[in-house]
Design goal:
300 residues, mainly alpha, three-stranded mixed beta sheet, 16 helices, 51% helix
């Protein structure tokens, strides 16, 4: 007797997705409610969808279940669940992804959706956010994207953002996002040889960043700037520029006296002396100065 044939066949995916999309934030048949953001907007959802798609929601919605046969200990929490630290538009985008495995993103919310994807452990959503960010990266957004990439350990996005910054550094250092970088991320940027900006302009950009950070963190300029300042390549500056920098430095003590002294020493000796060798390397955007011919660490 012949074995019966069997096969798993797929219906029209688009129709299935469209049907599920009608359930997003639909109070009909909803059995769980979230109150989202400062606006306290109500968002309606379905426990079974959230629980099967996201482990974090499964845990949230299962609080109170103990596995006991005692029905009084197995009552599902009714909510509403209060989510005050997320924008309604962002939360609805996450819900849309959970229902349809697709998402409508825009540059205003993508970084916050990325944050939610990490918090909820949604790796596929995280990948979609990273792709969107890389495809739409702009001068105004690149520093904020880099900060997020470092925070969440997204190495590929870090490299992409850094390469973008290297290509248009002069424009990037004037953005609000640059002034909001953490000291560790700024130091990482400053280690690059490919920055398309002159060192004198970079020193000024770091000074402006330091004053903003000092005001926000309520800490002295030298303290907030200690890490990034180590990556400034002061020996690349001409003597006249170094003298002006030293004068300006008396106002805010941005740069340690020892660093300025080491730069002066390289001018006096006309060779690399007492400073890590990478601080003598011109960047892609460094304007040539006469003394640069003395700064090759391999020159005798």
């Amino acid at each position: 007797m012949a074995e019966p044939c069997s096969a798993q066949l797929q219906g029209e995916a688009a129709a299935f997705t469209a049907a599920l999309r009608t359930l997003v934030n639909n109070p009909q048949f909803s059995d769980v409610t979230f109150v989202v953001g400062r606006e306290q907007q109500k968002v309606f959802a379905h426990r079974c969808v959230l629980a099967c798609r996201c482990q974090a929601f499964r845990g949230m919605l299962s609080q109170g279940l103990t596995g006991s046969k005692d029905t009084t200990s197995n009552i599902l929490p009714q909510g509403p669940f209060i989510l005050g630290n997320v924008q309604p538009e962002v939360f609805l985008a996450v819900i849309e992804f959970l229902y349809t495995n697709s998402i409508n993103l825009n540059s205003q919310i993508v970084l916050e959706v990325l944050t939610s994807s990490v918090e909820y452990g949604l790796q596929d959503l995280c990948k979609l956010c990273v792709k969107f960010i890389k495809d739409t990266l702009s001068v105004e957004q690149v520093c904020e994207a880099l900060q997020a990439a470092v925070t969440y350990g997204l190495a590929d996005l870090q490299q992409h953002c850094l390469a973008f910054i290297e290509g248009c550094t002069a424009e990037v250092v004037r953005t609000r996002g640059f002034h909001e970088l953490s000291d560790t991320v700024l130091a990482q940027v400053l280690r690059s040889d490919r920055l398309a900006v002159d060192e004198l302009d970079l020193v000024q950009a770091v000074r402006e960043w330091a004053h903003v950070s000092s005001a926000v963190l309520e800490r002295p300029v030298p303290e907030v700037a200690a890490l990034p300042v180590r990556e400034l390549r002061l020996p690349l500056l001409a003597p006249s520029e170094l003298a002006t920098l030293e004068s300006h430095n008396q106002r805010d003590l941005l740069i340690p006296v020892e660093s300025i002294a080491a730069a002066w020493r390289s001018h006096a000796l006309k060779k690399v002396s007492g400073v890590p060798s990478h601080l003598y390397r011109p960047r892609c955007g460094t304007k040539p100065r006469d003394h640069h011919r003395h700064l090759d660490p391999y020159t005798k």
